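Reviewer comment 2.1 asked that we show a complete input and output for one of the modelled complexes. We chose the SUD case, as it is the one discussed in the main text.
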Amino acid sequence: MSSVTVRVPAKVNVQLSVGPLRDDGYHDLVNVFHAVSVFDEVIAKESESISVRVEGESADQVPVDDGNLAIQAARALAKHAGRTYGVELIIRKAIPVAGGMAGGSADAAGTLVACNELWGLGLPREDLMEIAADLGSDVPFSLLGGTAVGTGRGEQLAELATGGRFHWVFAIADGGLSTARVYAECDRLRAALGEVVAWPQASDALLAALKEGDARALGAELANDLQPAALMLRASLARTLEAGRELGALGAIVSGSGPTCAFLAADEDQARELAVGLVGAGVCRTAVPAHGPVAGASIV
Ligand SMILES: C[C@@](CO)(OP(=O)(O)O)[C@H](O)COP(=O)(O)OP(=O)(O)OC[C@H]1O[C@@H](n2ccc(N)nc2=O)[C@H](O)[C@@H]1O
Ligand SMILES: Nc1ncnc2c1ncn2[C@@H]1O[C@H](COP(=O)(O)OP(=O)(O)O)[C@@H](O)[C@H]1O
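Response of the prediction step:
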């Protein structure tokens, strides 16, 4: 095999409940992940050394050195296999960079699947999941896809069966937000308000809405503890969320650490109309309709 192509989805967090700050600098979470049909593509080609080239959406903002999560993934996999391997990685980005949709995690997961195949390692998914968790909290979910409840720092996953397809619109902003900065702002706001931070719990109403495929109920239950922090760091997002609500979205939420905003629609037609309306209202750089759940990193 001289070349392998893998497609990996973005995610939205339909519930993100942030618990207390841990000693290791992470927060315990209940993170209900939902994979959506905005895909990066990772192409892995035979090579002597490990390198990466990035094309597409905001490619100039992605590092091509060891800071690239895909490079880290290739190195981690080679180390796990106990050999020196090379690969030329080409990443075609559609997932917004630093957008709260796990684009870097997607590329890392895609690289694990692609190199496992290219190098003929034949490692089972469980091994890839373990390597993924060391690369980043969201990387295991990018492998798994679908809908899942993440606990711990988000890396311990329990799959959720959902009833049918949900239709979304993602309002993509100019520029990104740093995940670490948004978590730090969340801690700062909580301390300033003297909040007692509760242990995170999955919402029964939200899980039931997912299971039943009830978009209206899901829209009412969307919840993100990082949203106040993201709004504090990017005040303009309040207008974006409001515009979506006024245009009739069933739910409006910041995706993860933001700044992408996610809107739930009743069906595909409404999603298309919402996307046009959001761009027309001038509250985002672009708006992308998508659906979920979709499969995790898969060879195409
Ligand atoms: C917020 C979420 C929601 O799914 O993703 P994004 O919206 O950024 O994509 C995740 O929790 C991000 O996961 P990921 O981007 O993989 O984070 P990591 O690389 O593991 O950690 C980056 C930094 O985020 C903070 N962090 C991350 C996860 C966690 N449970 N608690 C944290 O406090 C820490 O400051 C950490 O140093
Ligand atoms: N393959 C990659 N794609 C995107 N960003 C990457 C990648 N590798 C490393 N990064 C770095 O990770 C940061 C967070 O990117 P990303 O994963 O897209 O955002 P988020 O954590 O908000 O979902 C970027 O600002 C970039 O510097």
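The chain has two domains: 3-160, 166-291. We note this here for comparison with the apo prediction described in Section 3.2.
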